[in-house]
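Sequence only, no structure available. Ideas?
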Amino acid sequence: MDSFALTIVAACIFLLIASFSLKPSNKYNIPHSVLLVFLGILLAFVIKQCPSLAFLGEFQLSPELIFFVFLPTLLFESAFKFPLRKLVEYSVPILLLSIFGYLLSVGLITSIIWIICTLLSISFPILAILLFAVIISATDPVAVLSIFKKLGVTPRLTYLFEGESLFNDGTSYAMFVILIGFLTHSAGNLDLFHLDIAILQFVVMFIGGILFGVFMGYAFMWLISKVKTEETIQLTLSLVMANLTFLLADLSKHFLHIGGHEFEFSAIIATVMASIILGSRGIQKFDSSVRAHMDILWEHFAFIANSLIFILIGMLTVQVMTVPNITELWFIILLAIVSVIFARIISIYLPLNIFNLFTREDRKISKDWMKILSWGSLRGAIAIASLLMIPDNLAIPHWTLEISPKDAIITLVIACILFTTFVKAVTLEYFVEKMQLAKFSHIETLETLEGKILTITMLLEKIEQLRDKKYISRKNFARFVKEYKSSKKHSIRKIANFFIKDVDEENIKTFLHLHALTIEKKILQTLIDHHEISEQTYWTLFDKLIKQEARLKGGAKQIQGPYIDLGKIAEEEIPLRYQMTRARTVILKKVLRRLEEFACPDLCIPKNAINIVIAQYKKWSQKAEDDNAHLLEKYPKICRKGEYAIIGEYIKDLEQEYIKQLEEKSILNAKVSKYLQSTGLK
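Reply:
I predicted one. Tokens follow.
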């Protein structure tokens, strides 16, 4: 069998291992990335004992594979789901951590190791220490975010951690490119190092990466809008955008030459920004069926990339253990691990405490959050990609050790990755739970109890239908009813005590308003999915809802509804205003129906609180209806024309949906169904 076929077989075996390890990972509460590294180590030892499996050990992650295939995938998957408004909201702490914090970490690691080595007369050149510090200060959020997601950690902490990791990667790679360029082109001669040029290179990479990424994000938004109904093309364009943005930004170094010096845009920052733009402002450009598959598709791509990376980290660990003269580094390895831990703590606490000095109380970062950010600094893809890009013949001035500079740096980095994987990742969940960072708020507790009661009520109705249709025996019917009624009674008792002891009327009204806003957002999404509103209408109303949500969470009262000013309107604005008033009418009527469900006696919600909220929504609903009627009366032709277009799009969607239903019921065969969907009914 040729080498290419063996490589494919090896990749398939690794993916089988990754897939079947998911179940024990979930069962025994072990982060999947941790288990994969362990299995990689185990696999490397098995390969040594079984020569017939040697081809597995020959499977190598090339720097090109990680950098140009896996990295764009991992960056897109994380950044696509990162809301642009959250990036803006948390921009100051994110940039403080990802730039100032990163540089502080690099400086501290380098200083600590160099000073101690000098004091103990251990020969380890400062440039080698600096290269190690630049690589190891990059963080990887994969294992941490999976723990956060499982435990339900507050979204604000999740956004802060993920935002820091995304931009920290960009800072890390920019520093690595500058440093490795200096070492390879100037042979580490400090007389040839120009600080001003290095700073300019960093600024061009970072700012240029942001601007280029924003451009690519909007460019692909436009392209995707031109193929609105073509699902396959839209999915393909998302894949093309991630990889093309990364590749073009990396290629920029061949064209950006200033004063004889080479500059480039950061491929990582560009891909992150393009993905955030597409995921936040361009998400509505995708067909609704595509949006339903996007997360699954990209999570699967990321799963494949991460699985191969973490298994090969384990296998690389065994290779490192067999490197000649590795015993020279035992003390430096321990020193490196301690230095990285200390530097991470300082690089989190110092920037965030500075941030807390100049921000308002409700936006300050708590000490517990700082502890988790400090301890949750795992390492992964970026560190491995950087390691593999170090030249084999790297020369560092004053290097006297028997082990080569590249092998020494790989050994130190792998040792730190193993520590973060087997110590930090494994214990992080314990610290999160101990600090009660995933503890339910009053509103979440209330939502849990009410959700349980409403679900049981619907289940009991369904069980009665099964009995009436004789799909279930009377004995089992009685058993199920008894079990669920007991659970419902217990929940009603808990919620009654909850309202008496833990929540005042203002908190209840806040809960109801927040719940109503969530319903509004879901209905708004349904309206645009059915093409009943334009993107402009969607974003106008969505932004209003987000501002109201932030206002309520900030402790302010919702004293005014999202009214729309219908004073003097330019003629070209009338269709948009009509869409907005019509959308508000539809949304508020549906919200009112949902709120009236909360008046159910079983939910024990104080009548006064729910009546006040319902009264407010009735007032806003009436205002929306009046606005709608006012526009219809004043501009009948324009509004009727707009209404025909809106409803026409909705009916087209219904055509497709009903034809598909007939196909699913075998009333139409696939050929006829496809013909009717493509030609339409008119």
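The CA atoms of residues 183 and 396 lie 7 Å apart.
Hope that gets you unstuck.
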